[in-house]
Amino acid sequence: MCIHLINPSEVSFGTAVITPRWLYVIAAATPKSFGDPSLVDETLVAVDPEQIHAGDIVGIGIHTANALRGYEIGIMARSRGAYVVFGGIHATLYPNEAHELGGAHAVVKGDGDVVWPKVLSDCTLGTPQRVYEGGRIEADQFLPARWDLLPRKRYMWASVQTVRGCPKHCSFCSVWRTDGQRPRQRSSDAVIEEIVELRRRGFRFIALADDNFYPVTLTDLRLAEAQHNTARLNELKTIRAERFALMKRLAQLPSDTIFFTQITMEAAEDTEFLDAMQVAYIKGALVGVEAVTPEGLKDVYKEFNCAGDALVSRLRTFRRHGVYVLGSFIFGLPSDRPETFDATALAAAQAEIAFAQFVMITPYPGTVDFTRWEQMMEAAPQTIAGIPITRRWLIPRALRPKLFWPHPTMSGEEIRCRTQSVWDNFYSFKSIWRRSRFIKSFRARLAFVLISKIYRQMYADTGIATDSARVSRSARWARWLARPCQQLFAAAPMPQLEIPHAWEPAAGLE
Ligand code: B12
Ligand code: SF4
Asked: What is the pLDDT of residues 154-208, one digit of tens each?
């Protein structure tokens, strides 16, 4: 009997950008008595059905975008006599769907780290439960990933989570509802041990797979102080101090280490934090800019962001403190007008961000937007291939429309074309070359161009490509570009690397 863990994908590139962390965490949760699980990441290579036998247990992790492929695998595995278990955010939100369409014997809702051994032993006894509540476990229960199972030279970036949950409540995001608004922050020991293991194995590019690396803002501290809420103030100070303590340890790693994280632009108010990030080799961060107008920010409940000149200045602050920004922008918001596209392109250029992504508004399950949209669609239900568009992830990809949210003044096609042209301009050779001016060496500049191009191409699938010909052209391009990128990202293993010593969290409060 074998345990298989499968990360579904409709397209396989042979090489991938970031490790799907859940695979290696659930592998770590698999008791030794079951042997090492077999891990299949379909972004590398498609699953081979012949490897799945009667009595095996197949764990499949799905988010909304790969749910349909996950269900195909589930049906296939069940037909071969295996037990099929689904987990991940989409299965958490739609457990019944995994049963009805994915051949599930069981679904794990929430975090799998603690509950997975029970699922395995129930399957072994032939008595899997329909649903397991994995819940939101505390940070000290998060398992370190089984990096010893990682295939060599297949991923450019490894991923390590330092904090889960986000105190904000953006309308398009499910994180605060599924992962919660209380930051669950791992100890610096747990994080640094994983990172050192990855460096020993030859990774120097590591994505900090966090929802928000800056979970406590200076405004939060001021508010708690003004309210004389001592307990809250101490709690916030502790979280902040632990961030600094972690960054001090990261700063002791070899100087060619590069981290990338996700953070709110509020961090620009806190240059002490940005400086600590720079010293800790956190060289890049995805910043959710979303909109460049106050109306747009209001649309997405993100009024804590800045608009206009203040936005440009905030984003530049990151750059001034050595943190390069991947700006994330959303198009198709109700307040967007044709001129918003040009304004966004201009702001992206003025803000000196290194990379950008321009996504069209997509109501994701579990979000405020999705609930509103679902209610709106109830009045005039629409279907494609007999599937309600409110279950769009079940629509075959070739038929799936890209924009789902009706806009008050622009057609979906207009928004798509305008979005496309912002992408094309931002990633034209001329623009990329101009943006790469900050890089001193010619070789590194070329690497920047290559990475920009591959980012643009890989994004076409989740981003804006509408027709399958374009998607497959993008996949071909990405495959072609991925190999040299893989070489660029590889580092020599450092088996002797020591674990940096701990810093008392209190040090960060000084
Ligand atoms: C890091 C990250 C990324 C990275 C890396 C992705 C990667 N390859 O790993 C990048 C930046 C590339 C990325 C891209 C995108 N992401 Co993202 N990402 C995350 C983030 C912040 C962390 C993921 C992570 O590694 N978590 C750590 C692991 C250990 O946790 P986990 O995956 O949840 O797994 C646990 C449980 O879910 C469960 N579990 C999971 N699978 C299974 C399977 C079994 C069998 C069992 C038992 C349990 C189980 O147990 C695990 C351990 O507790 C999450 C938010 C989050 N908090 O999860 C968003 C998130 C997953 N991303 C999201 C989205 C929308 C995207 C994009 C579509 C964004 C965009 N607009 O383009 C793209 C899609 C990329 C793609 N095609 O996969 C959404 C998904 C929403 C949804 N309903 O599907 C999330 C939840 C964030 C959000 N804003 O809502 N992402
Ligand atoms: S979009 Fe970012 S800031 Fe907003 S709730 Fe989600 S993780 Fe938090």
From this structure: 998 999 999 999 999 999 999 999 999 999 999 999 999 999 999 999 999 999 9
Average pLDDT, integer, range 398-419: 88
Secondary structure in 3-state letters for 128-158: CCCEEEEECCCHHHCCCCCHHHCCCCCEEEE
Amino acid at 109: K
Q: Which atom of ligand 2 is nearest to the CA of 176?
A: 5
Distance CA 151, CA 160 (A): 17
Whose CA is closest to 415, among 369, 478, 378, 362? 362
Q: Report the atom number in ligand 2 closest to the C-alpha of 167.
A: 8
Nearest CA-CA partner of 423 in 399, 444, 396, 453: 453
pLDDT attached to residue 404: 76
What's the pLDDT tens digit per position in 340-386?
A: 999 999 999 999 999 999 999 989 999 999 999 999 988 888 999 99
Q: Which residues pair with 203 in a beta bridge?
A: 490
- Ligand 2 atom at shortest distance from the alpha carbon of 166: 8
**Mutation test residue for ligand 2: of 170, 208, 362, the one with most atoms within 8 Å of CB:** 170
Which among 377, 176, 384 is positioned nearest to 264, based on CA atoms? 176
Residue entry with tokens 């329909």:
130
- Residue 459: pLDDT above 70? yes
Q: Tell me how far the alpha carbon of residue 73 lies from the centroid of ligand 1, in angstroms.
A: 19
Mean pLDDT, to the nearest integer, of 141-148?
A: 98
List ligand 1's pocket residues with C-beta within 6 A: 18, 20-22, 25-26, 59-61, 63-65, 85, 87-90, 108, 111-113, 116, 159, 161, 164, 173-175, 179, 209, 211, 359, 364-366, 462
**Ligand 2, pocket residues at CB < 6 Å:** 166, 168-170, 173, 175-176, 211-212, 264, 288
